[in-house]
Each structure stands twice: as C-alpha cells, then as structure tokens.
Write a structure and sequence with these properties.
alpha/beta; Rossmann fold; 4-stranded antiparallel sheet; 9 helices
C-alpha cells in the first residue's frame, strides 16, 4: 500500500488499498489517498495511468475489487452513485457531459435535483460565473467549450457537495480559458469544499493544489506538497524512470543539493507495463510531463 505526504488534519475523503479491474485488466493497484476538508489535491499522470478510473470509482461508477472509500469516516464503498451524491460527492466528468438540448439553467437544475443543504444556490452559481445569468436560457450546445465546462462545474455545485471531483478540466480548452476556470478553485476551497482533480497539465496542477499524487499504470508513484517536489522527481514518477542516476538521489543535475521535501517516489521498474489497458488517447512525444519545465 502506498502512503506518503501525511497531514495532521483528519481526512474528509479517504481511499484505502483501492484496486479496480476492467474485465481481466487491472487499472488501479492498492491506491491509498487521504484528502482533508478544504484542500485541493491533484492527481497527475499520463493517459491510461488510472486517474479517471480513480475518480469514477470514488463516485460509484466503478466497483472496486479491493479496498474502501470513506467519506467523513463513513464507509461508502457499497453505495450506489446517486446515494453518494446525496452523501456529498459530486463528479464533473471528463468531456463535460451536459444535456445539449437543455438550457444552461436547466442543466444546473439537473444538479440541483439532488441538492443538499448548503450555500450553492443557482443564484450563487451565477455569481461565481458572471456571464452565466444573462445567458441562462441559451442551449448548452450553443456554448463554447470553456462555457460548457463552467456549466458542468455549476451543475455539480448545485448539489452542494462536500467533495468535488474534477476530471480533466483543461481538456480541449485554450490556455486562457483554462486559467479562468482554475481561478475559481481557490474560492471553492475557501468555502470549505474538498477538491480532488485529475489533470495532465502538471503546471496547472502544481499551481492550484495543496498536495499532488502521481499515478503510473495504476500505482501511486509520487505524493507530496508541490513545494516539496522537484521537477526531476515529478519526471521520474510520471514516466517511471530512475531519479537517482546522477548521484544526487533526486535526478537533479550534478552538484545540486538533494531535495528535502516530504515526497515519496516509488522505485523505477516497480510497475509492470502489462498491468493496465493501453491508453485510448494519443501518446505524448515529449521527454517531460506536459507543463513541467525542468
């Protein structure tokens, strides 16, 4: 079981020893994370690493073959997805998944149909996204990709979750739009909401998260606060290469002091390449994780 980067705060969301299979192929191996209330944790990793599978399992859309999911100390592993929404977990899925023929406001009301007591009314969502009130009657299909992503976030907020799961917020969006969307996350965290986000753009994840976890072929290979992680550690965890090839122990250039940050890096070669389905997305041709400049 992988554990790293512990915190004194009690976790609101806790995943322990989670393993998930897609048929005969294992997508997650003994994954454990703990997210305290009001923090933003980011899951980074390449296509096919298991990031979306983890979020979907927490949301109840995949059944684990081992391990547990706990919310505020309560074991919710056996709850159906709609019961998890009622308990306080909301997912913004990859690709947004809005109802294209419904208006902006109607999509928000879909989320509000499972509303718990809380501050996120439809008006509060309109206040968060200033453009939305004047265009509330416009069909979702007529919105830009960034506007659709904002509506998807608003739909999740309308349920008043205590835990917000965000899957690939930046997918297919222009950088300026991504920055605007990410600018709303500190406000959500300040309200006490716990956020677990999946992101391939490492620079965005590091900028917003209080804690980062890297997945490689279904295993956690790195965990820690961004300030305690070096670019070399992230690269090693992202690609599964050794971070100790230069004598420093952290993959930094010779003569660079070794990092003392509270991070845990799995040894290279510990993840079998055949343990997870092949990525359905295009392979990245860079020699560094996207968004990281080393």
């Amino acid at each position: 079981m992988t554990t790293a980067g512990t915190t004194d705060a009690s976790p609101l969301l806790e995943v322990a020893g989670l393993s998930v299979h897609h048929g005969q192929l294992q997508a997650l191996h003994d994954v454990s994370i703990a997210v305290p209330a009001g923090q933003v944790h980011a899951m980074i990793g390449a296509n096919g690493a298991g990031k979306s599978t983890l979020l979907r399992t927490i949301a109840g859309l995949h059944a684990p073959t081992a391990g547990s999911v706990r919310l505020d100390g309560r074991d919710i592993t056996g709850l159906r997805p709609e019961r998890r929404v009622a308990a306080g977990i909301a997912l913004v899925p990859e690709g947004r998944r809005l109802f294209p023929s419904l208006s902006v406001e109607e999509n928000l009301l879909v989320g509000a149909s499972s509303r718990r007591t809380g501050e996120w009314s439809i008006d509060a969502i309109y206040d968060l996204f200033g453009w939305m009130r004047d265009r509330r009657r416009q069909r979702a299909a007529q919105l830009s990709g960034g506007e659709q992503q904002a509506v998807a976030i608003g739909r999740a907020l309308a349920a008043n979750p205590s835990v917000l799961l965000l899957d690939e917020l930046s997918l297919g969006l222009a950088p300026v739009v991504v920055r605007r969307i990410y600018a709303t996350l500190p406000q959500l965290a300040a309200s006490g909401m716990t956020i677990l986000l999946v992101e391939q753009d490492v620079s965005q994840a590091l900028a917003v998260a209080s804690h980062v976890h890297c997945l490689l072929e279904g295993r956690v290979t790195l965990a820690g606060p961004p300030a305690g992680l070096t670019g070399a550690q992230i690269e090693a965890a992202y690609f599964g290469v050794s971070a100790a090839s230069n004598g420093n122990g952290d993959g930094s250039p010779p003569g660079t002091p070794a990092s003392a940050g509270p991070a845990s890096v799995a040894p290279a070669g510990s993840v079998p390449a055949s343990s997870v389905p092949a990525s359905s997305g295009p392979a990245r041709q860079a020699d560094q994780p996207p968004g990281v400049h080393i």
